Amino acid sequence: MTLIETVKELRAWRKAAGRVIFVPTMGALHEGHASLIREARQMAGPEATVASSIFVNPLQFGPNEDFDRYPRTLEADLALCQEAGADMVFAPTVPEVYHADRSIQILESSLSKALCGASRPGHFDGVCTVVAKLFNLVQPDEAVFGKKDYQQLAIIRRLVRDLNFPVEIHGIETVREADGLAMSSRNRYLSAAERAQAPALYAALSQARAAWKDGVTGSRRLLEILHQTLAASASLGRKDYISIVDRHTLQPLDLVQNNGLIALAVFFDKARLIDNVELIR
Ligand SMILES: Nc1ncnc2c1ncn2[C@@H]1O[C@H](COP(=O)(O)OP(=O)(O)OP(=O)(O)O)[C@@H](O)[C@H]1O
Ligand SMILES: CC(C)(CO)[C@@H](O)C(=O)[O-]
Ligand code: BAL
Fold this sequence. Notes:
The protein is globular, with a radius of gyration of 19 Å. Helix content is about 40%, strand content about 20%. By secondary structure, the chain is an alpha/beta fold. It has 10 helices and 9 strands. It has helices spanning about 5-15, 30-45, 75-85, 95, 115-120, 125-140, 150-160, 190-195, 200-215, 220-235, and strands at about 1-5, 20-25, 50-55, 90, 140-145, 170, 240-245, 260-270, 270-280. The longest helix has 16 residues, at about 125-140. It folds into 2 domains: about 1-170, Rossmann fold; about 185-280, Pantoate--beta-alanine Ligase, Chain: A,domain 2. The model has no long low-confidence stretch (mean pLDDT about 100). Strands 1-4-3-2-5-6 form a 6-stranded parallel sheet, with helices on both faces. It has a 3-stranded antiparallel sheet with strand order 7-8-9. Bound molecules: adenosine-5'-triphosphate, pantoate and beta-alanine. Adenosine-5'-triphosphate binds near residues 32, 149, 182 and 183.
């Protein structure tokens, strides 16, 4: 596996790389990331190249967010990438990616207004800007993203459509701990007591999904079910949002016939955790 840290080296690598499948990350890698890289390896077969990136993107963090203390574990990350089947990892510094006097960025004006985007203003503009830059640098044929960050996946699909990036986007199922908690780099911020309560998020989402499968289609009732479970078993959590939306447009739904998404974000002190389930027949 090759480690590349500069744009110049990356450009040279790309000329010889053939078909590329790309997995962008912010590092602090876990089994969720490993599953994306393994999936990319599967898609690539022996012929194509699997590339990953590790870059904590300052543009997508708000002024009071955790950019400075975001975990940086490069050595362990490289070992995980190699074990999962990556051929190349691009791990640039911030000045390598952003010119100090940069003056152009991407703004998303629709899908980013709800869910996480509502409480993280500018976050998805930062994500779109860095993903566009990474796509221009790595020039992948296909790219793989996790459904844990469902809004991000929907916005990346829109980015590719609206700006004509020749990249096929794949969404991969969320990998969970044995007790249901969605794996996330930010789970390490949880205290023991918070970690014990955090599986309640997926338990509540699963209960609402089970009720929907049993015929409850009204969002109001589904949200009541969710809130009841969370009130009973996640007393340390503070809701940021819990919403039922169309899984493509991310617009709120009153009734869910098909193609719904229940998405939530809950703060446990320093850790803001997100999770979601699809309501698909
Ligand atoms: N549990 C998971 N299962 C599947 N994919 C995941 C999981 N967690 C993250 N991903 C995906 O990995 C990619 C990189 O995400 P990122 O590096 O932000 O990881 P993260 O663990 O979600 O970190 P954070 O806590 O910052 O959200 C994204 O496409 C994201 O959706
Ligand atoms: C897509 C991404 C790598 C852009 O910084 C990041 O938002 C992430 O890790 O999900
Ligand atoms: N996985 C999304 C990256 C972020 O929270 O900034």
